[in-house]
Amino acid sequence: MYPNGPQRAALAQAFGCARVVFNDALRARKDAHEQGLPYPKIGDLSKQVITEAKKTPERAWLAEVSAVPLQQSLRDLDTAYSNFFASMKGARKGSKIAEPRFKSRKDNRHSIRFTANARWKITPGGDLSLPKIGDVRVKWSRDLPSVPSTVTVVKDAAGRYFASFVVETAPRTLPGVEPVVGIDLGLGHFAVLSDGTKISAPRFLRRAEKKLKREQRRLSRQAKGSKKNRDKTRIKVARAHAQVADARREFHHQLSTRIIRENQAVAVEDLAVKGLARTRLAKSVHDAGWSAFVAMLEYKAALFGRQFFRIGRFEPTSQVCSACGVKDGPKPLHIRVWTCGACGTVLDRDINAAVNVAKAAGLAVSACGAQVRPVRVPAQRGEAGTHRDGQTTVVGIPAL
Question: What span, in angstroms and rounded, lies between the C-alpha atoms of 219 and 241?
């Protein structure tokens, strides 16, 4: 999105009002908890921090923005509390979620959400018309497949504006193919496939490290009181980091889409990324972005009617010969090629691990990557891409 000066000011006001409503509602719930009272419901909070607050001199400016983003801010708080309580009770999977915290006006990322009742629209000229903001110029990444139900406007740390739409889409199951593949993720090579393909690690952060250091050094030399110059330099640093993140995300999307299109079933090892991120390899691990890549593989497999398997991280994929199945123990990392003592097969460490990943998932491949009795793998009926009534996806700007 490319808002002009008045539109940027209106968006900044909307971001600020949504933040204030969120913080006021959070304070009301914290006060109720400290006093031993039940949490006020979302309807009572809406009346207290929006409807009644607009009538006071301190919050009269809440009436200058659309009421829908303010209501959605309360819904976000309600969802945050629901996730927090579910995490405390053990009903929510994953790591523990902290209690909702107050939002700061110094946060570098801001967002507001408009639902259909806000009467926003896409103009015939392709602009995005938002209530009390105006017609904002948009560069579209793709055509919307259906009428969107909500739009979220986001401003990132680099000062860029994006619009993300929630739309209803029809199933997009791809034609069935024969190949199946196991993937071994690493740092020397980003990914090694069970068919012998090795994909080099782009190392986007390492390549941009010199530029990032230079921009960060300039920012550290700026006086903290010089708001104008310091903000300009901060935006330069944020844009340099955004370029690295965008390049990495584009690489992940292109590679994951290619793998899903060319293979009927995909198997990946479940890596302990959090543990590796606490070692001396932390920067390289974060630069690789394995978790984001595996998440893309998983949702794209469900979207296009493919099968996705995630095997356990304790599977000895590097210790077992993929030709005869003999486990000959762990090997130092500097050993990249060895000969199996049982069958005499010369094994590449990464390709051997990728083949074992596929076998651990029940996919039939040979040690050299060729398929053994290739059979078409049908998509599961429970996958998201096979529902008759369609599914909900997010289409954003820019193109992924």
Answer: 14
